[in-house]
């Protein structure tokens, strides 16, 4: 059966599954003739979500399985404007993450010390924890209990680095289209039954 899209085609994505919706742009990586689906690397999205409590909590390039009707070829006339549109969109996402981190740090630094209750599931009890900037940027997260701020700054910093990579990839592709095919060191492929976001 002939393919509608070929490897390395630059496409708009309108991906919908039971669990996720992804609206954005990407490049076709491969075609699975058995499933009749295209494997597409997502380069930029309309909405970027970070979920601190998922097990796959590190940022990564996403390769999703798309039907042909969920993709639209971006022709040369629209190429530069689409790159600009999504680079701007990703800048907004990174700005939101930086504001979240700044807001938390400034709150902790300027207000009197705050204590939070944290639930420790192994011991079935609550514990009092003092909020600190060091704890917010700690290397590990969710050590013993459900503390929504422990290590979250470091987690968000990793997403800021990933978004910077995405913005650079889109901006550099204006001069050299081969930049679109750069891959982030961490890449995950998602089946349609899986959640796409982190």
N-to-C SSE string, H for helix and E for strand:
EEEEEHEEHHE
**Strand neighbour order, sheet with most strands:** 5-1-2-3-4-8
Helix content: 25-40%
Major sheet description: 6 strands, mixed
Number of helices: 3
> How many independent structural domains?
1
Q: For the terminal residues, how far apart are their CA atoms?
A: 35 Å
Q: Structural class, judged by helices and strands?
A: alpha+beta
Shape summary? elongated
Note down, in words, how this protein is organized.
The protein has 198 residues and is α+β, with helices and mostly antiparallel strands. It has one domain (10-190). It contains three helices and eight strands. It has helices at residues 76-110, 133-136, 152-172, and strands at residues 10-16, 21-32, 37-45, 61-66, 71-73, 115-120, 125-130, 187-190. A six-stranded mixed β-sheet has the order 5-1-2-3-4-8. The protein has a two-stranded antiparallel ribbon with strand order 6-7. A hairpin with a 4-residue loop joins strand 2 and strand 3 (37-45). Helix 1 (76-110) packs antiparallel against helix 3 (152-172). The longest helix has 35 residues, at 76-110. The protein is elongated. The model is unreliable at 52-56 (pLDDT under 50).
């Amino acid at each position: 059966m002939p393919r509608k899209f070929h490897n390395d085609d630059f496409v708009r994505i309108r991906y919908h599954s039971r669990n996720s919706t992804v609206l954005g742009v990407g490049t076709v990586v491969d075609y699975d003739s058995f499933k009749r689906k295209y494997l597409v690397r997502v380069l930029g999205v309309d909405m970027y979500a970070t979920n601190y409590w998922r097990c796959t909590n590190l940022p990564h390039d996403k390769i999703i399985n798309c039907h042909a009707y969920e993709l639209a070829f971006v022709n040369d006339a629209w190429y530069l404007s689409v790159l600009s549109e999504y680079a701007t969109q990703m800048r907004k996402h990174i700005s939101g993450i930086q504001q979240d981190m700044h807001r938390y740090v400034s709150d902790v630094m300027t207000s009197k010390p705050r204590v939070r209750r944290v639930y420790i599931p192994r011991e079935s009890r609550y514990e009092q924890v003092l909020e600190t900037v060091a704890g917010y940027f700690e290397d590990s997260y969710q050590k013993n209990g459900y503390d929504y701020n422990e290590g979250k700054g470091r987690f968000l910093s990793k997403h800021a680095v990933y978004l910077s990579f995405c913005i650079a990839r889109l901006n550099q592709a204006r001069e050299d289209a081969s930049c679109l095919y750069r891959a982030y060191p961490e890449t995950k492929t998602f089946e349609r039954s899986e959640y796409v976001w982190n």
